[in-house]
Amino acid sequence: MLREIYEQPESIRRTLEAYTDGHSLREEAFLPARHALASRESILISASGSSRHAGLIGEILFEDLAGIAVDVEYASEYIYRSTQTLHNPCFLAISQSGETADTTEALREASARGSSTIAITNKPESSMARMANCSLPTMAGVERAIPATKSFTAQIVVVSLLALYTARIRGRMTRAVVESHLAELYKVPDAIEAALPAWEAQVSELARRLQRCDSFIFLGRGVHAPIAREGALKLKESAYIQADGYPTGELKHGPNALVNPQTALMVLATLDEHSPDSRLRYQKTINLLRDLERQQPEIISIVTEGDRKLAELSRCTIVVPKATEYISPLYEVISLQLLAYFMAIGRGIDVDNPRNLVKAVVEE
Predict the structure, then answer these.
(1) pLDDT for position 329
(2) Residue 354 falls within a domain, yes or no?
(3) pLDDT at residue 85 greater than cutoff 80
(4) Could you give the 3-state DSSP secondary structure of residue 143?
(5) What is the largest CA-CA distance in the chain?
């Protein structure tokens, strides 16, 4: 798992190279997707586990950037839902293996309902890739550890590129704006590579201190909320610790009853100073943490480099590079992957083969 965490810069580079020319999107790489999206006014994303969290990020990207309505379904629930869930959507299946039983069945059902279909998988020869009208493989390479790490970040990259392409063909973005977004994505591999050793050293030490905590709550707003869910899932499946991920504003709507000095709050509080929405979310997160001081939880905040405000309200801050709002999740999730890894190692767990789990759920 640790090796695959460190392989993420290269897997992101390979994925970007497959779909861009270093400056703009490759039209030929997205032509099948263009046909699948043609005349569709909505997208239905179906996935399970970590792939569903990538889909939740996709929901925000498609809606915010491309102006197209998106619904995200649990793959295991889709076939039991009414056929009236969305009218004439493009169906997007996301799966690391491309063989997940419930996602495959959902894809088959969507095809029978007349939806056009796109599959994002890490295996271009997989059943889903062959079944879908369009296959957009990630380039993460073989992932052997059961907890998804490099396949997850590669999924985010492909979803981001597809959202940019959709925005372009729908006339929501000029070529120059798309290329400015791509320029930010191109910076990611080198920035992760430079930050990983410091993150590993800091998080390994932090994990030793957090072993005393009996529960973890992960919080994030907007596009960061799916990363909070992913952080919680990684901790549960890797270290066997009860953890939950919520949108930050939901804490006071029930979960706050669980917050006490034995609770670790993992707070995603990065800031894109050029985004008014990001600035608002950031300020509301600060207000929430001030309100929590009397409960004395162990607050760990993931912040943008140069941030000073969150350090005053947190026991520890993990610093990630400055980035635009939609890029920051790629940095945030890696520190949470490292946390899950070191919490598991500290508890003597075989993190590559957690109990009761398999890499691909091929039977329901």
Answers:
(1) 98
(2) no
(3) no
(4) coil
(5) 57
Domain match, 196 and 320 both: yes
Q: What is the CATH number for 17? A: 3.40.50.10490
Q: Are residues 136 and 280 in the same domain?
A: no
Domain coverage including residue 217:
191-346
Encode pLDDT of 21-57 as tens digits: 988 999 999 999 999 999 898 999 999 999 999 999 9
Same domain, yes or no, for 229 and 323?
A: yes
**Token pair belonging to 288:** 């929430």
Polymer length of the chain: 364
Within a domain: 351: no
Residues 112 and 217 in one domain: no
Given a contact cutoff of 8 angstroms between Cβ atoms, the answer to whether 110 and 117 are in contact is: yes
Report pLDDT digits (tens) over 194-226. 999 999 999 999 999 999 998 999 999 999 999
pTM of the model: 0.96
